[in-house]
Design brief:
Length: 307
């Protein structure tokens, strides 16, 4: 194996360990949920393991997916704006997860970390890292949002100055539903095409983001998981889950890449919630907690500056 191959092997080892650590921890925190492991192969090259659970005491449905796919030709979503990738084989590997708790007071969350590489003989490989994590509450609390962003900022410590605001702003911009005029949630971190710090340092950053996900999310879970809720909160949660579906199917680049590259459809669409509803021209009651969500939280905000 060449030197670059050794580097990619180290990334793969980390990603497999991250998937294992997250699923083991979530099983322990939930108490009843167990992840079903579904290994799969991609016809064009590669495969992965999808881990899914449903019906737990905390998690209504959750998926933590590892994939490593490769091939001789890039899908249009990857090569359209990168003409230098023409004629190169590619590898893409990563861990992605989406957690849909049953309790409407516990936020939905998404995270992923990934690396992409394109190679051809007698040429330097083209590579970059991407990933991040974001939070989608239905009944948000300021202390939770501040904790989430403090932990995101911690993940950026030790890297070039301005890393947190750069990737925080990118998250707000990326997870924005233009047709709704609102962010999908309260943001977090998002980065892509990261290769300007050298391979090892970019890998360090991807690893820091992956390692900070559980410390960002689990304290919020513990504060909210025993909150009492009823049919009103449940119906609002299902309505707001519709925004999650809209974003993933209309805007998400990872979904598009997976489908265009011949990825496994069940694994790609595991991010969708198990139950969801839409309601024509829904308007929350003024002054209600449901109205506060869009009026206060679903807009780009400097949460730590405001604190």
């Amino acid at each position: 194996m060449n030197d670059f191959g050794d580097k990619l092997a180290a990334v793969k080892e980390y990603l497999l360990g991250l998937q294992r650590h997250i699923t083991d921890t979530l099983e322990e925190v939930d108490g009843t949920a167990r992840f079903h492991r579904d290994s799969w192969e991609r016809e064009g090259g590669g495969g992965g393991e999808t881990r899914v659970t449903a019906g737990g005491s905390l998690l209504e449905q959750a998926g933590v997916n590892f994939s490593h796919v490769y091939g001789d030709n890039l899908p249009p979503s990857a090569s359209k704006s990168r003409p230098e990738l023409a004629g190169r084989g590619f590898q893409a590997m990563g861990v992605s997860l989406v957690l849909h708790p049953e309790n409407p007071y516990v936020p939905t969350t998404h995270a992923n970390v990934r690396v992409f590489a394109a190679e051809k003989p007698d040429s330097e490989p083209v590579w970059w890292f991407g990933g991040g994590f974001d939070l989608t509450p239905y009944y948000p609390y300021l202390e939770d949002v501040e904790h989430w962003h403090r932990t995101a900022r911690d993940a950026c410590e030790g890297f070039p100055e301005g890393t947190y605001p750069r990737f925080k702003d990118w998250c707000d911009e990326y997870f924005y539903l233009r047709h709704r005029g609102e962010t999908r949630g309260v943001g977090g971190l998002f980065f892509d095409d990261l290769n300007d710090w050298g391979f090892e340092r970019c890998f360090d950053f991807m690893r820091s983001v992956g390692d900070h996900f559980l410390p960002a999310y689990l304290p919020i879970v513990e504060r909210r998981r025993d909150s009492a809720w009823g049919e009103r909160e449940r119906q609002f949660q299902l309505y707001r889950r519709g925004r999650y579906v809209e974003f993933n199917l209309v805007y998400d680049r990872g979904t598009l890449f997976g489908l265009q590259s011949g990825g496994r459809t069940e694994s790609i669409l595991m991010s969708l919630p198990p139950l969801v509803r839409w309601q024509y021209d829904y308007r929350p009651e003024p002054g209600s907690p449901e109205a506060e969500l869009t009026e206060r939280f679903l807009k780009p905000t400097d949460w730590l500056g405001a604190a």
